[in-house]
Amino acid sequence: MADYKDLKGGTVQNVAGDPPAPIAGQVWYDSTAIAFQYRSSNPAGTWATTSALNTAREQVAGAGTTTSGLVFGENFGGETELYNGTNWTEVNDLNTSRRGPAGAGASNTAALAFGGNLAAPSPNAATDETETWNGTNWTEVNDLNQARVFLTGAGTNTAAIAIGGATGAGGNPPQTGEAETWNGTNWTEVGDLNTARNSFASGGTTTSAVAFGGSGPTADTEVWNGTSWTEVNNMNTARLGMGGAGSSSTAALTFGGPSSSALVELWNGTNWAEQNDLNTGRAYSGSSKGSSTSALCMGGGPSTASEEWTSPTEASETITTS
Length: 322
Known about the structure:
CATH architecture of the largest domain: 6 Propeller
CATH topology of the largest domain: Neuraminidase
Order of helices and strands: HEEEEEEEEEEEEEEEEEEEEEEEEEEEE
Strand content: 35-45%
Helix content: under 10%
CATH class of the largest domain: Mainly Beta
CATH superfamily of the largest domain: Kelch-type beta propeller
Distance between the termini: 22 Å
Largest sheet: 4 strands, mixed
Strand order of the largest sheet: 1-2-3-28
Number of domains: 2
Number of helices: 1
């Protein structure tokens, strides 16, 4: 039988605490804990079903985190629900009911909703309306420069970016690649996407963002550096109507898509890697926006399903010897 040195190319180290930069599968003796330790790895990440939304919905937007989430809008609705990490609670509606809006925000007490498709005036006009959420009420603020639906957004309620979408009635062409940044008071036009599109997803900030997928469907991915967009490596599977989350242009997550897709991919700044699927496939879901390591998928389909993502992890674990 091969010993540890033959298998790993080295002996078991004796260190106080963790060795520098341990790798998955490495074993050492921790003289502080007086125990053998090893480096465990969960390389694919997992989805866990959480409490259901109160109202089944699709074509929604979201904001927040896995412990402080918000979902709003639906198929020409304005209903808003707040998540505290355990349960969803219905709260005050958007002032303007709409489908296909975009959202941004760091918590369920500070969010931004912008764009979307109105039930009236007919026929299904795209809107430029923007609203801010303070944890209790939505307040109308200054409009987008370009009315649109099925756009995507990232950032916070005081520093957001609105990207792409469709400007035609009912979410029809023409599509736009136009991007705008929000400073808490006004929207400012910035550099356009290289490929105009709608029904796609994004993650990041006003100075470091990534946009992916969309109408076509396409697998195209572009990163934003605060000045311009650059085309980078595509997703593994072309799709539209996905959810998305991420903290920057180098860390993003996408999930779901057409025909009740459950596909999930993780972006590391260079490539997309397929991950474990959603438990419930769906399109046009809402998503918490700020992190690719811990995210919510809310509704879609239409559905009341809500799921929480935990990213791939590594940790030091004690080996039980008795």
